[in-house]
Amino acid sequence: MNARTLLGIALAATTAVAACGDSTDTLTGGMGGSRAKSSRTPSNNADDDDADTTTPGSTTPGDDTPSGPVPTNSPAGKEFYKTNVHPFMAQKCGSCHGAPGPGPAWLTSADAEKSYAQLFQVGYVVQQSRIVLKPAHGGSTTNVLATAEIQKYNEWVSMELEDGGQNAPPNVLEKLGDCFDRQKFDAMNLAQWRTTRRTANNNTNNVTPWNENANNCTGCDNAPCTTCHSADAATNYKNSVGNPLLPADSTFEESKLTSPAYITKYFGVSPEGKPIASDALKKKSEATKKDRAYTHPMFNLNANQSAALDAFVNDVITKYNAGTCGK
Ligand code: HEC
Ligand code: HEC
Fold this sequence. Notes:
2 strands; single chain; binds heme C; 14 helices; mainly alpha
């Protein structure tokens, strides 16, 4: 793989995003942060978030962590999170990253204990976390942490990493790559994962505006994920399966990486250091059904795709727990 090939692919991906017309601002706003759209008023306020916690039976991915005390390797870290970190996370991020969306769900404003576990699950309890790196996005100009908040967040992470030791998230994630099964990975058929255009018929959450014009949006209408996720690390997700310009195993190999943390699309680590499913792809899918037209293209996972995804993830966890990876 030479640099020019990679650059060519990256440019192709950029062009594909740019070709989405109106979506350009929003998508690049998510990545670069400088041109976030101001027209959007988040339709989900703190009240929606509260409502979420009163419906524990919700089946929304990311909402499956039981409420109640979460076992952890760092009781002091958990207390620090609840007292010093959760309040600003709830205030600045909770309105969009709870179950009602439109961002992927990894926080529950009214439940610090649960949020603590959710942040572990999606792989954000690491130094250089996406939480502190993500620029303003999602139509807001104010959803970035202040310097003092970033310091608190990193201070919390340091406590977790120290107390977790070999069971801290980065150390566990690093070992999981050895457990990947090529056949189970290939069975997900990632080359076939595609987007679904938002139309009057699939507006399940009654989002406005919703309908997308197929002519304005090359990436939203039955496009393979590989169109945009082949080689651009800025999107934080790797899928180039079937791309003839790249080695056949590049997605398999790169999905093991902890930096960029492509592995967190599949795996997280519990506060006790156990590998768990991150459900990040399902959370992203759910989020796209709650976000408006021309933002990240909507996608649905069908039953076969979900089953293959679960089979791949569960196999890795089983082998890790049995100590049979790399054998
Ligand atoms: C106005 C709604 C809104 C608020 C408030 C908000 N986000 Fe987001 N966030 C989104 C949307 C929509 C996406 C998906 C699109 C994107 O990545 O730009 C997203 C995506 C993300 C991502 C990318 C990973 C992912 O889950 O897809 C990170 C990281 C993130 N947000 C962090 C934060 C942090 C940290 C805060 C609080 C400081 C925050 N967000 C507040 C709407 C919001
Ligand atoms: C038109 C280009 C485009 C297509 C097609 C596309 N994506 Fe994305 N995707 C992006 C961009 C840009 C981001 C980063 C900003 C955002 O989340 O909106 C992103 C972010 C993501 C993320 C969040 C990564 C993170 O944690 O920050 C996931 C997961 C994802 N995409 C999955 C998919 C899947 C699965 C498909 C196919 C079904 C797909 N995408 C199709 C452009 C695209």
